[in-house]
Structures are given as structure tokens and as C-alpha cells.
Amino acid sequence: GDSVTQMEGPVTLSEEAFLTINCTYTATGYPSLFWYVQYPGEGLQLLLKATKADDKGSNKGFEATYRKETTSFHLEKGSVQVSDSAVYFCALTTVRGGSYIPTFGRGTSLIVHP
Amino acid sequence: EADIYQTPRYLVIGTGKKITLECSQTMGHDKMYWYQQDPGMELHLIHYSYGVNSTEKGDLSSESTVSRIRTEHFPLTLESARPSHTSQYLCASSESDSNPTDTQYFGPGTRLTVL
Fold it and tell me: For A83, A89, B71, B75, which has the most beta carbons within 10 A of its beta carbon?
């Protein structure tokens, strides 16, 4: 079945460092791809998404490009802040029983030190 | 900002008690979901609903049950809580099940501890 694989965490960085969180997927057809973020004590919220190959999603300085040839959707940010400390989930939507059901990766914890 | 609410936020309860976790959304979304989030942060889909009077089991087998009598309300019930049910429970909704680009909106979660 369809699946998402994320790099293991935690990822620990100093403030202003460059961030990459790797995400690869396995899917039949052409899934939509998402990054969600979960801040401590909260539910998940959408960070960005891309719906077709070569699309770039961006929000709050984060970017990810839908790479069909490498089945990847890596999350990047040029300069992280302490406030970016959270758990990041890569996800795709896949057809199941005639409707679209989301499939999430295991999450990658990011810790940013001052 | 998402308008999806969960109560209680925290619950500590003894073994054998019946509990209901509440989830409500004011966005008029047809699709609603329940996830169980383990300490390692992985999300497991346990129930979902396409709309009123529709419920489906998710990927992770769960002893909980759900109902969908009103569009905005999707409660989860455990008839007899056990320590193995200790977890974070997240409720979510999305506008439809026919659009692959739809965003999921999550509530803040209920942290359940069964002693």
C-alpha cells in the first residue's frame, strides 16, 4: 500500500542553521503531498502542500518541492528559529474505498537551540 | 484558524470506567477522523466518518466505538477503559472525501491516562 518514510529524529540545530527533513513516498497514481506541524501540546496544522509534480509549497519560510522522479518531498528552511521547535509530519492522500484517506509519516522532532 | 474542539483536554481515570471523548467542528465538514498518537508521535487512524450515520474503522484496531448523529459532532467512546488505552487522541475533519488536495484540520487533542 501507499506509505511515507521520514528521516528519524530528533533533529537538533542551532538558531539560524539550515534545515532539511527528508521525506520519500510510495504511492500508486499521483498523490497530493503535505507537511503538517505539531507544536507542543497542540494538534497538527497544515504547513504547506503540493498537488502535482514540480509544484513547490511554501509557508513561513519553509519550502518543499514535489519531486516525482525521486518520489520525494523534502522540507527545507534557510534559517530556523527557536519557535520552529515542533514535530513535523509528511503526508499524502491516497484513494481507499473510493475516497481519499490521508497517510502520515512517523513524524520528525525538531529541536532548535538559541 | 481551525474551528474544531475536543474535550476534555486531559483525563485521568481508573480501569473499567466508561469514557466518552468529545469532538465538535463548526466548519460544516463532512469527513471526520479519530487518530491515536503514541509516545513516539506516530499517528494511527482508528475511526473515520464520511458523514451523518457513516462510520468506518481505520488502520489500527481499537476497542473504542464512534457515532455520527450530527454533522458537527463525532464522539469516541470506550466502554471499559484499560491502561493500554493510555494515549493522546486527536480528532480531525476535512471538507470532503472526493478532493485529494483537501487539508485536514485537527483539534488540540485529549490526553487520556488510565490507571
Answer: A89
